[in-house]
Design brief:
The model has no long low-confidence stretch (mean pLDDT 94). The chain has a single domain (3-268), classed as Nucleoside phosphorylase domain (Rossmann fold, 3-Layer(aba) Sandwich). It has a 5-stranded mixed β-barrel with strand order 5-8-7-6-9. It is globular, with a radius of gyration of 18 Å. The chain has 6 helices and 9 strands. With 271 residues, the protein is of the alpha/beta class. Keywords: Glycosyltransferase, Transferase.
Length: 271
């Protein structure tokens, strides 16, 4: 029996039956489960072969329940390369949620605004991304047993779900930008020169996650959509000092808009 099968069996025994939608919550974005009728939950460190969240502000729970008439499985806390994990660890939960049966994946993150027309507290729908992590979650022996090795990435974010999110934002008067997300390893924040570089290569926002999960979702032919909560403004000509607490505070302030978008999207999805 493979690691994935052991993990899935463990979760099914604890009530994680036939989820329809998977959700990954990013830094400071942990309140969506408050909206869920929770049927089962388990800490990451109890799940066989599951990584354990080592960042103190990531709670580290897998939650299963009802939200807007759908069965959802929620990652309350994700994994990052900067914690010392590899690409397989970071994306293992996506493979687990897919094997459990999800048909759609929703992803959120906290990011810095490279595009100076975007302001902290705003939301950005990710339209495309730039992988600056120095590797791929598909670069391992035997990857073709689980999906295509050479995955097409011409449209990594599902158009239909993205269009629905744009319509929901418009209907609710939520300012929603659309842009390109650059993923870097971290954990240090960027220098002024690095912010200039990111702007030159076309990034609108920068963060330390998401891209590996998106690549694996495409590998698994799992439709995925992602939004960034913009927590700081990355102006290299007037760069303000930023600490983790200020990022968390801004995430919490903007989170209700992200929750509104996700809830109405889930209600509108056919799975």
């Amino acid at each position: 029996m493979t690691y994935i099968e052991q993990t899935v069996d463990y979760l099914r025994e604890r009530g994680f039956e036939s989820p329809e939608i998977g959700i990954i919550l990013g830094t400071g974005l942990g309140k969506l489960p408050d909206e869920v009728e929770i049927l089962a939950e388990v800490s990451y460190n109890h799940i066989p072969h599951f990584p354990t969240a080592t960042v103190e502000f990531h709670k580290g729970k897998l939650i299963y329940g009802n939200l807007e008439g759908k069965k959802v499985v929620i990652m309350q806390g994700r994994f990052h390369l900067y914690e010392g994990y590899d690409f397989l660890d970071v994306t293992y939960p996506v493979r687990i949620m897919n094997r459990l049966g999800i048909k759609k994946l929703l992803v959120s993150n906290a990011a810095g605004a490279i595009n100076l027309d975007f302001k902290k507290g705003d939301i950005m729908l990710i339209d495309d991304h730039i992988n600056l992590l120095g590797g791929s979650p598909l670069a391992f022996k035997g990857v073709s047993k689980t999906g295509d090795r050479f995955v097409d990435m011409s449209c990594p974010y599902d158009k239909k779900m993205s269009e629905k999110i744009e319509a929901i934002a418009k209907r609710n008067d939520i300012a929603l930008h659309k842009g390109i997300y650059a993923s870097v390893k971290g954990p240090q924040l960027e220098t002024r020169a690095e912010y200039r570089y990111l702007k030159i290569i076309g990034a609108d926002a920068v963060g330390m996650s998401t891209v590996p999960e998106i690549i694996v979702a495409n590998h698994l032919k799992l439709p995925v959509v992602a939004v960034s909560v913009l927590t700081d403004e990355c102006d290299p000509d007037d760069l303000q000092e930023v600490d983790v607490q200020s990022i968390l505070d801004m995430s919490a302030k903007a989170e209700p808009k992200m929750i509104k978008l996700f809830k109405e999207l889930i209600a509108d999805l056919e799975v």
